[in-house]
Amino acid sequence: MPDRLSALDASFLYLEDQATPMHVGGVAVFRRPKAGFDYDGLVALIEQRLPLVPRYRQRVAQVPGRLARPVWVDDPGFDVTYHVRRSALPRPGSDSQLYDLVARLLARPLDQTRPLWEAYLVEGLAGGHVALITKTHLALVDGIRTIDFGQVILEPDPHPTEPDPDEEPWVPRRLPGPTRLLLDAVTETVHRPAEVVENVRAAIADATATTRKVTGVLGTLVSAIGVATRPAPAGPLSATVGKARRYAVARARLDDLRGVRARHGGTVNDVVLAVVSGALRAWLLSRGEQLTSATTVRALVPLAVRDGGADGTVPGMLGNQVSPQLVDLPVGEPNPFVRLQHISHALRPHGDSGRSVAASALLRVGGFAPPTLHSLGARAAASVAGRIFTVVVTNVPGPQVPLYAGTARMTAMFPAMPLTKNQALAIGVTSYDGGVFFGLTGDRAAMSDVDALARMLEESVEELLAAVKA
C-alpha cells in the first residue's frame, strides 16, 4: 500500500505559501576540533545516519486530480550534496552576520519536488566556531515514523566519521506513475466515497478553501485549548506577515531559572513564560504602547501530553501528543513575581490533569530530541492558525551534557520557529548543557527591532534574579 500523507501532514503543504513557509529551523554552534570539521565530514556524517531517518530520502508525489492525499515516494534523483550546503561569513564572522544569514534562509520555502529538508554548514565564525543551520518541513517530522535528523547526528561522545563497510548502498524504489497513483487512490477509497467527493471538491476549490477543508479535521486539537477561542488582544504583534524575516537570539543559565522556580514555585516552563512576559512588556513600552494592569499578550504554548493508551515511562514518548495551550501573558503587570504567579495559575490545570509529561521524561527520549519536539510544537501551533493568538512559545528541555557531531562539540542550539499569516513573532527555547537558548523569528517589517526584544529577554531574567536576591 502507498505511504500516504495524513490529513494533518497534507495540510501543512496546502497551508504553505511564499510568505509563510512551513518549516522549522535550528542554529547549532560547534567548536571546531583540532582535526577540523569541514563540509566533507558533515556530508559523510549525515550520509551515515540517513538510514535512521529514511523519509529524508523521500519526496511528496501528488495524486492526479487530487483524488487522494499525496504519498511519500523515494526520490530517484536524491543527492545529499543538494540538501547539505556550504556557506561562509567574512572572517571573523560576527553573530549578527550569522543571524542575518539565518533570517534569509528561513524566508525561503523548501522545494516540494525534493525531500523537504536542507542543512547549511557556515564557516568563518569568530573564535574558531562553525554553525549548522537546518530547515525541516512540518509535513516531514511527525515524531512517530520520522524524527528530525538532528536527533541522530549528535552523540554524547566524539566519534570520527568512518564509513561502514557492511552498509548496503541505498537503492530507491521505483517511482509510481500517474496511473499507479490513481489506481491506489481508487482502491483505498472505494469503500469511502465521501472522501473521494471531498478530494475532488478540494482540487476544484481555490487554495484557501482547500486549506479549510483539510484542516477541518483538526477540531479535536482546537477543543483541547485551555482558553476560550476568542480573538487575541490587538497589538503590534498582530500583523499580516510578509516574505522577509529577522532572527535574533538570547541566552540564560538554567540554574538561574531553576533558582527562581525553587524560590517561587511552579515549573521551569512557567519561569520561561514569565521571562517572555517581562521582555514583551519592556518591548511594548519601548514602542510607546499604553499598558494597563489588564493588558495581555495571547501566547500559544505547545505542551506534551500523554496519549490515553501510551506508556508514560518512555521510550514511546515521541508517540505521545503535543497539545496547544493558550496562555494570556500578563504584560501589563509590573511585578515580575506576580506575572509568574499568573502564569503558574493559568497552567496549573495542565499539570493537574494527569496527562502532563515531565521534563525529566522528555530527557529520556533517545538522542538530542529538542529539534523533533520543536517540530511537533510548530505542527500543533500551525494546526490552530488564526487570530486567536499572537505569539508562539515552544520550550523543550535538552540534555545537560555536551554533545558532539562527529568530533565537533556543540556549544549552543537555537530553535527557529515558523510564522503563520497573522503572527509576527515566534520564540523557541531549548535548554542544553547548563544553558537556555532563545531563538526569535520575526516578520522583517513588523519586528524590525527583534534584536532589541532579544536583549530584553536577558534583562527580564536579570530582573527576576535581582528580585530573588532582594
TrEMBL record:
Signal sequence bounds: none
Entry's Gene Ontology molecular function annotations: diacylglycerol O-acyltransferase activity
Reaction catalysis annotation: an acyl-CoA + a 1,2-diacyl-sn-glycerol = a triacyl-sn-glycerol + CoA
Matches recorded under NCBIfam families: acyl_WS_DGAT
Domain of life: Bacteria
Residue ranges annotated for the O-acyltransferase WSD1 C-terminal domain, each copy included: 319-464
Pathway in which this enzyme or protein is active: Lipid metabolism; Glycerolipid metabolism; triacylglycerol biosynthesis
Keywords: Acyltransferase, Glycerol metabolism, Lipid biosynthesis, Lipid metabolism, Transferase
Protein name: Diacylglycerol O-acyltransferase
Biological process according to GO: biological process involved in interaction with host; glycerol metabolic process; response to hypoxia; response to nitric oxide; triglyceride biosynthetic process
UniProt-listed Enzyme Commission number(s): 2.3.1.20
Top enzyme class: transferase
Domain O-acyltransferase WSD1-like N-terminal: 5-272
GO cellular component terms given for this protein: plasma membrane
Name of a matching Pfam family: WS_DGAT_cat
